Hints:
This protein has helices at about 25-35, 50-65, 70-75, 85-100, 120-125, 145-165, 180-190, 225-235, 250-260, 270-275, 280-295, 300, 320-325; strands at about 5, 10, 15-20, 40-45, 105-110, 130-135, 170, 195, 205, 210-215, 240-245, 265. The protein has 13 helices and twelve strands. It is of the alpha/beta class. The strands form three sheets. The protein has an eight-stranded parallel barrel with strand order 3-4-5-6-7-8-11-12, surrounded by eight helices. The chain has a two-stranded antiparallel ribbon with strand order 1-2. Strands 9-10 form a two-stranded antiparallel ribbon. It has one domain (about 5-325): Alpha-Beta Barrel (TIM Barrel). It binds flavin mononucleotide. Flavin mononucleotide binds near residues 44, 134, 199, 246 and 269. Flavin mononucleotide (FMN) binds next to strand 4 and strand 5.
Amino acid sequence: MNLESKYLGYNLRSPFVLSASPIATNIDNLKRLDQHGIGAVVLHSLFEEQLIDEQFELEYHLTHGTDSFAEATSYFPNYDEFRLGPDEYLEHIRKVKAAINCPVIASLNGTSIGGWTNYAKNMQDAGADALELNIYNIPTDPNLPSAQIEDTYIRILQEVKKVINIPVAVKLSPFFTNMASMAKKFDEAGANGLVLFNRFYQPDIDLNTYSVEPKVTFSTSADNRLELRWIAILKNQIKANLAATGGIHTASDAIKMLLAGANVVQLFATLAKNGLDYLLVLNKELIGFMEEKGYNSVEEMVGVFSQKNLPNPGAYERAQYMHALSNYQLKL
Length: 332
Ligand SMILES: Cc1cc2nc3c(=O)[nH]c(=O)nc-3n(C[C@H](O)[C@H](O)[C@H](O)COP(=O)(O)O)c2cc1C
């Protein structure tokens, strides 16, 4: 069975890709996934804030001497929590590249226009095969027009594209007024892939500690419908490859994403919950499905249920919403 999947200019041996996550901080994990035939791995992100901190640190040492620095860094929240600093991150890329065979995708995560985007070049030089650019922005300023925010997204991508020639995928939020228009703009700005979607970690109010706490909860399969719809809509409308992330827990979830039009599916929560060997189960079940339905290759499956390929394209649009609501049977 041919599981080969085309993503970011590579012929991956499987459509399963490790999502940016703490799994990637451990090289033994990556070796195991590589042995199990993972298509590619995305490393955990290096954050804009870390790069700004480093610049700040250097400047501060030059102008104030070393002693004051510890106090100054306390202004940066979670400063100590970041696992790898920028230099260690590059070293990690080199080690991972030496340890595994599948493509290694580095991840750079930020929101503003600035020098941090130049770090993409260091990642490329350290051996990254591609870059995932995560633009994770939560705008809250009521005076900031949305067009300006969208323009910033595109400019960040353009800045990154200027300094590297490895492929770039953009991981982004679903919260645009017109997602299709944004996707087209990324496409025109040279994104080689779109990773749909960022999962936002919503803060919660803890009534015991009486404070606002960040809450990281694992996804469930129900979370993947949003990306399913958009992947199906965008397939064949843009050149960039499409990667699905968020709530892909079972082989059925993955199969649906491929049928909708995803070139690859990214996995984190399911591997964290079920263990890395679960990749073998996913592979086996994918192959079982392909045999049952008579597909010889993953490529044949990709986009079979995309909007363009459906006799009823309204299935992914508002018409379906009205249909779903009017067919709902309330049982009290
Ligand atoms: C603990 C944790 C750490 C994560 N770290 C990153 C990261 O460094 N960069 C990134 O782009 N996404 C990160 N993510 C998001 C995942 O890559 C993924 O998009 C998200 O978990 C949804 O996929 P899943 O349902 O398979 O978990 C993280 C998620 C979790 C839960």
